[in-house]
Design brief:
The model has no long low-confidence stretch (mean pLDDT about 85). The protein has helices at about 10-20, 25-40, 40-55, 60-85, 90-95, 100-135, 150-155, 170-185, 185-210, 245-255, 260-265, 275-305, 315-320, 325-360, 380-395, 400-425, 440-455, 460-485, 485-494, and strands at about 230, 235-240. It has 19 helices and 2 strands. With about 500 residues, the protein is mainly α. The protein has a single domain (about 10-485), classed as Amino acid/polyamine transporter I (Up-down Bundle). Strands 1-2 form a two-stranded antiparallel ribbon.
Length: about 500
């Protein structure tokens, strides 16, 4: 049985017809889900790290670079979503064009992407929630809102005894709250997300409009700070650079994490009312809207205060407190807490739908495609995902996990760009409600751009990524290849 076997488009259409998922999402509901996933960690957390250490005022340029790379991929995603409007995202697209082994590898990395992404956001949510309680005079013990490593560092910095036990309780609790919302149903999840998205956009517009009155253009000079070599603990050059154009590129890989929400839109095709038209619209609309907002916010923040004065943990709040508008800190912190909740919701939603698509094809155990009798949601896999994320978020220090998440995303984006060109060449007769303009140019630019960004991440991230990939290949040959529905049908035909 060949590992390059391709799932026929007719099989995808059959899956669509017999799907038990509830089709309740409109094009604006899908767009809202995309915005819900995109606006969150990017604006409220990663902007501080990217501006403070790597790009300076050129943070806006880093968002443009990352946004352009995502635009190429989004145009390719949109065509696929109109041809194959099924849950599974890049995994399903690769299965229908490149072959089963590639599809498995993409799906395996999407699992890592969403799991790491949701875990990162859970920890970030805990940090903002703790800040919010502090603003109201309530302080959670350090050992109950951090993992042991982080709690030890904070206690030592404050001159306190290091704890022998620590558990990030807020991260644990929010993960289970989101899990229960997702088990209840897609309509409830979408309604919850819509409310949060309205709050987030309102606060982002507040930051842009109010902050614009306090911009000091001198803070934008120099726009790209002079390049600074990165030194190790012994003071020796590592070969990396902060600032300069190299720093801007590194910042682009960091903020790239903020854009993966549009990928989550394509995982909801099985629950869209008119997926062939609405999913492509939502993918492009959510990306364009959020890219414009990101660029404006980054210009405002670096214009309000000098980039090296931004707090890396809470950059938006620190920008307003830095110019004396302390009352705005309350609004921003509340919005950040709510905003990160919706990011978690969409990431965990995407995670379970990837499992569902792979299980339907026999590449994952049947456990992952079991639907609740009343809610029609994959409740078993949702509970499993929620359990894993809650424990990891509660016990693990996560400093560079956004890079790990980005690696899986970048690979998936590159593969989709390749796959859409292959499908256009092999199946030109297929009905395409949406066509990628200049597909071979856009596809090649998308592949090149995303592979290039992969080369900009740290060596340690590549090492972990390779280990995860090897484990995935082993699982494929030990389980998935033998249980593949496509493989079984080939064997029957013989």
């Amino acid at each position: 049985m060949s590992v390059w076997r391709v799932k026929p488009v007719s099989a995808f259409e059959a899956d669509m017809k017999k799907s038990d998922l509830k089709r309740v999402l409109t094009k604006w509901g899908l767009t809202s889900l995309g915005i819900g996933a995109i606006i969150g960690g990017g604006i409220f957390t990663l902007t501080g790290i990217a501006a403070h250490d790597y790009a300076g005022p050129a943070l806006a340029l880093a968002f443009v670079i990352a946004g352009v790379g995502c635009l190429f991929a989004s145009l390719c995603y949109a065509e696929f979503a109109s041809v194959l409007p099924v849950e599974g995202s890049a995994y399903a697209y690769a299965y229908g064009t490149v072959g089963e082994l590639f599809a498995w590898f993409i799906g395996w990395n999407l699992i890592l992407e969403y799991m790491m992404g949701a875990t990162t956001v859970a920890v970030a949510w805990s940090g903002y929630f703790t800040k919010l309680l502090h603003l109201f005079g309530i302080d959670i013990p350090i050992y109950l809102c951090n993992d042991l490593h982080t709690a030890t560092e904070k206690c030592i910095a404050l001159g306190l005894d290091a704890p022998s036990f620590a558990f990030n309780l807020p991260a644990f609790i929010i993960t289970w709250i989101v899990t229960m919302i997702l088990v209840k149903g897609i309509k409830e999840a979408a309604n919850t997300n819509n409310i949060i998205v309205i709050v987030k956009i309102a606060v982002v517009l507040f930051v842009i409009i109010v902050g614009a009155f306090y911009i000091n253009t001198e803070n934008w000079t120099p726009f790209i700070p002079a390049e600074v070599p990165v030194l190790d603990d012994a003071g020796n050059p590592t070969g990396g650079v902060n600032f300069g154009f190299g720093g801007v590129l590194t910042a682009a890989t960091i903020v790239f994490f903020a854009y993966i929400g549009f990928d989550a839109v394509s995982t909801q095709a099985g629950e869209a009312i008119n997926p062939k038209k609405d999913v492509p619209f939502a993918i492009i609309a959510s990306l364009v809207i959020c890219t414009v907002l990101y660029i404006l916010v980054s210009l405002v923040l670096t214009g309000m205060v000098k980039y090296d004065q931004l707090d890396k943990a809470a950059p938006v709040a620190s920008a307003f407190s830095g110019i004396g508008i302390n009352w705005a800190v309350f609004i921003i912190t509340i919005a950040a807490t709510a905003g990160l909740t919706s990011v978690m919701l969409v990431m965990m939603l995407g995670q379970t739908r990837i499992f569902l698509g792979m299980a339907k094809d026999g590449l994952m155990p049947p456990f992952f495609k079991a639907l609740h009798s009343n809610f029609k949601t994959p409740h078993k896999s949702t509970f499993l995902v929620g359990g894993i994320i809650s424990i990891v978020a509660a016990l693990t220090p996560i400093d560079n996990v956004s890079e790990m998440c980005s690696m899986g995303t970048l690979l998936a984006f590159a593969m989709v760009c390749v796959a859409v060109m292959i499908l256009r060449y092999k199946k030109p007769e297929l009905e395409r409600p949406y066509k990628t303009p200049a597909v071979y140019l856009v596809g090649c630019l998308g592949v090149g751009f995303n592979i290039f960004l992969m080369t900009q991440v740290r060596a340690a991230t590549w090492k972990f990524f390779m280990i995860w990939g090897v484990i995935g290949i082993i699982v494929y040959f030990m389980y998935s290849k033998r249980h593949s529905n496509l493989g079984k049908s080939e064997a029957e035909d013989k």
